C-alpha cells in the first residue's frame, strides 16, 4: 500500500504539493510514484528563478530502467530546489514526502489550486 | 498472450514487478521493502551471490548423425573446437544479409547432440530456420517448456554448490550433470553478469523445489533473488550485447564487435557478406562509453562529436551501479580511439562522455 498523507494535495501525474505559506508550495513525487519508478539514480532539478506553467515539464526523475518527467503542478517561479538530491537521489525513494522534496514554487494567483486532487481523490486514482 | 515461467506464482507472491520479455512475463525487480530493487540486486551479485529465473530463454535440441557438422555450417563460432561437455557463445546470421537472427549458447553433449539456448523472442525463428535447412536424419526439437534456466551468479556461487554437495570443478564454459536434492540438473559455468556463476537447467516440472533450495542457500550466504533489471545493468557494465539492441537483423557481428565469436576459417551463414564488410573497414563499430558529467544515456540517443556532428547512436544505456555514472554501448559510425571525448544528446541536453574499453567493470568469469 502506498502512503497518501491526508494533509497534502496531489496531481494525476503523481506529484504532491504542500503549502509552506505566503503563496509558496513544496513539490515532490508520491510514494506510489517512487515505488513504481524503482531505484531513483538521477534527478534533473528545475532551476531557481525559472518560471513554469502548470502542466509543463520542469524536471526529470530517472531510475535504472526509465525516465519520468516532472510536470509543474502549479504555475509560478521556482524559489528553491533540493540540492541534496543531486548527490543522494535515493532520498526520493526513502522519504518521498519529507527530505525527498524536489522544489518550491511561488505562485502569483490561487486559481489553479482548485485543480489539484485531495488525498481521497488521489487514493482512488491509484487504486 | 503472455507465457509464464514455472516460478510465476513465486514471483507474484514475492511482489516482483513483472514485465514482458520476448512474450514472457518475467520479474524485473523485487520489492525495495524486502531489500530488493535493481541497485541492491545488482550489488548482491557483484559482492555475494544472486539467483535469477531466466526460464524464458529458449531451449532447443539438435540431434542425430551429423548434428554437430550441420550446426557448424550454420553458426559463426566453431563447435569443432569444443570437447563434449563444453559450451560456446554463438551467433546465427541471415545468409542473405549477415544480420543477426539471434545469439545463443550451444552445449556440446556429443557430436550427435547439441543443446541450444537462444533468446526467448527468437527461439521460434531459430527453430524454423534450422528446420528449413537441416539435412535428413537430424531432428530439431523446441523444448522451451521442458526445462527451465536458473542463473546462480556471484563470487559466492561456489559456496552455494559446496553447500549442496556439488563439486565446483567446472572450467569456464563447461557443463556437467549433477543432482540437486535428488533432482537431475545440468550445471554450466556461464552467465551474463561478469561474475563467477552457473546457469542451471532443470526439468520444467521440478523447477519449484530446485529454486526454493537454491534461494534458501543463496539467502543464507547474504545473497538474494534478483530480477532481469539487475541482469541488464550487470551485462551492460560488462559490455555484453543484448539481441534487439547491440545485435539485430540490421546489425552484423562485424559491427557489433563480436568477431571473437566468429570462426573465419570455416563456413557459416552470411560468411562472405561479413568477410566483405570486415575487409571494407568502413563499417559501424560497437563501443562502450562512460558519462563524465551528468545524465543517463538511453537506447536511441545520438552520440555527437565536439562540433555537434552525429557520429553514433546509443544501443543500450543505463546508470552503472558500480561506477555510479551513466554508461552506454553505442554503434559508432567510425571506430573511435579509447578515451576520445564525445557528447551524448540526452533529450536536448549535452552529456559529456569518453569512449571506453569493455568490460567497463572488471570481469570475474574466469
Describe the structure concisely.
The complex is a heterodimer of chains A (127) and B (366). With 127 residues, chain A is α+β, with helices and mostly antiparallel strands.
Q: Could you characterize what this model shows?
A:
Chain A is an alpha+beta fold. Chain A has a single domain (9-110), classed as OB fold (Dihydrolipoamide Acetyltransferase, E2P). Helix content of chain A is 18%, strand content 35%. Chain A contains 4 helices and 9 strands, in the order βββαβββββααβα. In chain A, the strands form 2 sheets. Chain A has a 6-stranded antiparallel sheet. Chain A has a 3-stranded antiparallel sheet with strand order 4-6-7, with no helix packed on it. The longest helix of chain A has 8 residues, at 119-126. The radius of gyration of chain A is 13 Å and the shape is globular. Chain A starts with 8 loop residues before the first strand and ends with a helix. The model of chain A has no long low-confidence stretch (mean pLDDT 96). Chain B is built from 8 helices and 20 strands. In chain B, the strands form 4 sheets. Chain B has a 6-stranded mixed sheet with strand order 11-12-13-10-4-14. A 6-stranded antiparallel beta barrel of chain B has the order 15-18-17-16-19-20. A 5-stranded antiparallel sheet of chain B has the order 6-7-8-5-9. Chain B is globular. Chain B folds into 3 domains: 3-58 and 146-237, 2-Layer Sandwich (Gyrase A, domain 2), CATH 3.30.1360; 60-142, Aminomethyltransferase beta-barrel domains (Alpha-Beta Plaits, 2-Layer Sandwich), CATH 3.30.70.1400; 284-357, Elongation Factor Tu (Ef-tu), domain 3. Chain B has helices at residues 8-13, 38-47, 67-72, 123-133, 157-163, 207-220, 228-238, 271-280, and strands at 3-4, 17-21, 24-29, 50-53, 60-63, 86-93, 100-110, 113-117, 139-142, 147-153, 175-180, 183-188, 197-203, 224-225, 285-291, 302-304, 310-320, 325-332, 341-346, 349-356. With 366 residues, chain B is of the alpha+beta class.
Amino acid at each position: 500500500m502506498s502512503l497518501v498523507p491526508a494533509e497534502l494535495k496531489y496531481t494525476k501525474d503523481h506529484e504532491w504539493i504542500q503549502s509552506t505559506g505566503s503563496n509558496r508550495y513544496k513539490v515532490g513525487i508520491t510514494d506510489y510514484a517512487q515505488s513504481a519508478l524503482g531505484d531513483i539514480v538521477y534527478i534533473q532539478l528545475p532551476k531557481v528563478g525559472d518560471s513554469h506553467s502548470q502542466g509543463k515539464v520542469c524536471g526529470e526523475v530517472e531510475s535504472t530502467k526509465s525516465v519520468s518527467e516532472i510536470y509543474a503542478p502549479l504555475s509560478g517561479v521556482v524559489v528553491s530546489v533540493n540540492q541534496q538530491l543531486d548527490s543522494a537521489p535515493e532520498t526520493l525513494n526513502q522519504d518521498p514526502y519529507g527530505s525527498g522534496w524536489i522544489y518550491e514554487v511561488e505562485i502569483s494567483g490561487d486559481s489553479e489550486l482548485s485543480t489539484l486532487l485531495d488525498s481521497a481523490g488521489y487514493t482512488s486514482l491509484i487504486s | 498472450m503472455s507465457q509464464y515461467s514455472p516460478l510465476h506464482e513465486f514471483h507474484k507472491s514475492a511482489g516482483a514487478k513483472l514485465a514482458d520479455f520476448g512474450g514472457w512475463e518475467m520479474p524485473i525487480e523485487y520489492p525495495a521493502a524486502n531489500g530488493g530493487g535493481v541497485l541492491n540486486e545488482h550489488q548482491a551479485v557483484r559482492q555475494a551471490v544472486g539467483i535469477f529465473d531466466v526460464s524464458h530463454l529458449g531451449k532447443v535440441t539438435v540431434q542425430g548423425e551429423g548434428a554437430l557438422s550441420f550446426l557448424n555450417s550454420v553458426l559463426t563460432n566453431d563447435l569443432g573446437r569444443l570437447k563434449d561437455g563444453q559450451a560456446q557463445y554463438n551467433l546465427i546470421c541471415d545468409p542473405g544479409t549477415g544480420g543477426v537472427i539471434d545469439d545463443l549458447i550451444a552445449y556440446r553433449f556429443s557430436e550427435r547432440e547439441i543443446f541450444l539456448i537462444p533468446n526467448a523472442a527468437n527461439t521460434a525463428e531459430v527453430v524454423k530456420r534450422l528446420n528449413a535447412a537441416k539435412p535428413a536424419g537430424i531432428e530439431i526439437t523446441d523444448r522451451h517448456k521442458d526445462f527451465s534456466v536458473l542463473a546462480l551468479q556471484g563470487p559466492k556461487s561456489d559456496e552455494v554448490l559446496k553447500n549442496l554437495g556439488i563439486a565446483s570443478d567446472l572450467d569456464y564454459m563447461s557443463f556437467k550433470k549433477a543432482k540437486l536434492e535428488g533432482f537431475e540438473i545440468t550445471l554450466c559455468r556461464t552467465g551474463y553478469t561478469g561474475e563467477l556463476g552457473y546457469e542451471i537447467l532443470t526439468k520444467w516440472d521440478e523447477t519449484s523445489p530446485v529454486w526454493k533450495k537454491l534461494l534458501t542457500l543463496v539467502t543464507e550466504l547474504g545473497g538474494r533473488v534478483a530480477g532481469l533489471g539487475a541482469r541488464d545493468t550487470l551485462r551492460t557494465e560488462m559490455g555484453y550485447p543484448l539481441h534487439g539492441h547491440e545485435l539485430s537483423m540490421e546489425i552484423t557481428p562485424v559491427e557489433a564487435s563480436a568477431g571473437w565469436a566468429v570462426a573465419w576459417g570455416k563456413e557459416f551463414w552470411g560468411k562472405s557478406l561479413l568477410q566483405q564488410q570486415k575487409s571494407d573497414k568502413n563499417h559501424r563499430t560497437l563501443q562502450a562509453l562512460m558519462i563524465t558529467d551528468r545524465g543517463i544515456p538511453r537506447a536511441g540517443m545520438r552520440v555527437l562529436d565536439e562540433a555537434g556532428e552525429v557520429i553514433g547512436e546509443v544501443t543500450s544505456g543505463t546508470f552503472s551501479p558500480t561506477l555510479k555514472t551513466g554508461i552506454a554501448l553505442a554503434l559508432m559510425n567510425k571506430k573511435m580511439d579509447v578515451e576520445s571525448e564525445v557528447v551524448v544528446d540526452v533529450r536536448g541536453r549535452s552529456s559529456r562522455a569518453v569512449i571506453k574499453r569493455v568490460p567497463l567493470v572488471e570481469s570475474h568469469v574466469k
